[in-house]
Each structure stands twice: as C-alpha cells, then as structure tokens.
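Structure (tokenized):
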C-alpha cells in the first residue's frame, strides 16, 4: 500500500519560512516525479513545485518561483519544500503528490498523479 505522509505545516508570519516534508512508502518514485500542490478555500488546486526523475530537474509554479525550493532524497523516498519569504496569499492546504511513470509534460498537472498525501495546512499571517 502506497502512502504519502506530509509534515511541517503550521502558522507563520509574513516574511517567515517553513519547511514541508513528504515521506513516501510502499513504492519507489525514483523514475517518476514527486510534487507539491496547494489549494486555498474557493480556489482551484495549484501546482507549486516538482522534482522529476533521477535527473532531479526542478519545476516551479510562477507564484512561488524564487521563494520556494523543492528537494528530493531518493534514498529516503522523500521530498521537501523549503518555503521562504512567505506571503498571506501562500495560505493553503499543501498536498504532496507522486507518480512513478509521469511524463515531463505532465508534471504540472495534478490529474496525472496517482498518489496523494492527506495535506498539511500552511497559514501565513499578515
């Protein structure tokens, strides 16, 4: 059984930092992608960041580029999201996603991920 378990969410003031982690078990995603998406109340799910395959190439959503850093530990089947210079508009539930066979052109599309975590709340106060 595949499980993705997120940790690290919480409440932070604007300008602060948080680090999210996602640990996968039950399957290796070294040949696929591990990613972060977020969803705020009333909004659609938004792509945040992804790390693709063994190459470790990283991709970011426009709204977080330059502030967030995604990293991956293949040996531990984990992915992290370092969030810096946080803004109130970053407030959302953040979800970890993974897929073992996703193609590069689909890494930003949540519909193409087979596995999801339960989500962790990030709240940024102004």
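Design, position by position:
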């Amino acid at each position: 059984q595949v499980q993705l378990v997120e940790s690290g969410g919480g409440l932070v003031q604007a300008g602060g930092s948080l680090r999210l982690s996602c640990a996968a078990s039950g399957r290796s995603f070294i040949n696929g992608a591990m990613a972060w998406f977020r969803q705020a109340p009333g909004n659609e799910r938004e792509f945040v960041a992804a790390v693709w395959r063994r190459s470790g190439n990283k991709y970011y959503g426009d709204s977080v580029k330059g502030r967030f850093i995604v990293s991956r530990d293949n040996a531990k089947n984990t992915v992290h999201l370092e969030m810096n210079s946080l803004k109130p508009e970053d407030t959302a539930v953040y979800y970890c996603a993974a897929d073992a066979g996703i193609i590069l052109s689909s890494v930003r599309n949540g519909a193409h991920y087979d596995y999801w975590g339960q989500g962790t709340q990030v709240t940024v106060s102004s």
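Reviewer-requested clarification: The radius of gyration is 13 Å. The CA atoms of residues 18 and 90 lie 11 Å apart.
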